[in-house]
Amino acid sequence: MHDGKDSADGSGVMVRKRRKGIYILPNLFTLAALFGGFYSVVMAMNGRFDLAAVGVFCAMVLDSLDGRVARMTNTQSAFGEQMDSLSDMVSFGAAPALIAYEWSLKGLGRWGWIAAFVYCACAALRLARFNVNTGVVDKRYFQGLPSPAAAALVAGFIWLMTELGVQRGMDTWLTWNQVTWIMFAFTLYAGLTMVTNVPFYSFKDIQMKKSVPFVVIVLIALGIAVINISPPIILFSVFVLYGLSGYGVYAWRKAKGQHSSVISTSTDEPDERGLHK
Question: What is the percent of the chain where pLDDT is above 90?
Fold first, then answer.
């Protein structure tokens, strides 16, 4: 008798089956990204909104690495995909909504928590749609604003205002009431743009393994130097431009008479008929 872990092959030789396991390397990046989102919420509860925003941006960097690491090391798995989605929901869905609400939106009463919930719900819907439509979407584009970029809009604005010294109870070049309504607008814009059919460039067609001209490395070094001049201003500006770029692509495609949708054919849930305009 045996414990069921051995089996006989065609020649009658007993072969021990390999136990199913979890790939450590890519999931370490995913767990680190999840920690970034959790850390952001804790810092927001403690009133350290600058650190909360930084936590979201760190989660973004780690989230961008786990998939690439999995592909480069050939350690993709269904478990990793599900883990990544759950991590994204915390770091780029719940965390930014809670940070925005705790920072200023709660001053708007029910309007504040409605805006935060709309963002959180749209992040969940966007991630669910992404998982379902993975096989039918043009890999060069995202269908709607990706959740990390949406989180960067929300957290980036908080980081920028904190860096500029804009705080509750202190009226500077912007009153706190104005800041609160701007936060309200950013939260709704980021949330609703996630569930649109607007195409956003994904950068997935950039091959990391290919050689590049020397000037590319120089430009990357210059980019890092520019970001270090003022990370809140530069990073927030970059993501504002990216958050608007999809609508530019949408208008350009419409002007050329092309389909604005990035879906070629779709027979799976959710039903995408009527969105190919």
Answer: 49
Domain encompassing residue 103: 24-255
CATH number of 121's domain: 1.20.120.1760
Which comes out higher in pLDDT, residue 18 or 171? 171
The number of domains in the chain is 1
- The structure tokens listed for 242 are 């990216």
Alpha-carbon distance 120 to 208, whole Å?
32
Query: Is 268 part of a structural domain of the chain?
Result: no
Going 195 to 139 to 56 to 67, the CA torsion angle's sign is positive
Asked if pLDDT for residue 95 goes beyond 90, the answer is yes
Classify the phi-psi angles of 67: left when phi > 0, otherwise alpha if psi is within -120 to 50, otherwise beta: alpha
Per-residue pLDDT, 60: 94
92 with 123: CB under 8 angstroms? yes
In a domain, 200, yes or no: yes
Q: Is residue 14 part of a domain?
A: no
H/E stretch holding 250 reads helix 231-255
- 269 lies in some domain: no
Distance CA 273, CA 218 (A): 46
pLDDT in tens, 172-182: 677 888 999 99
pLDDT of residue 168: 75
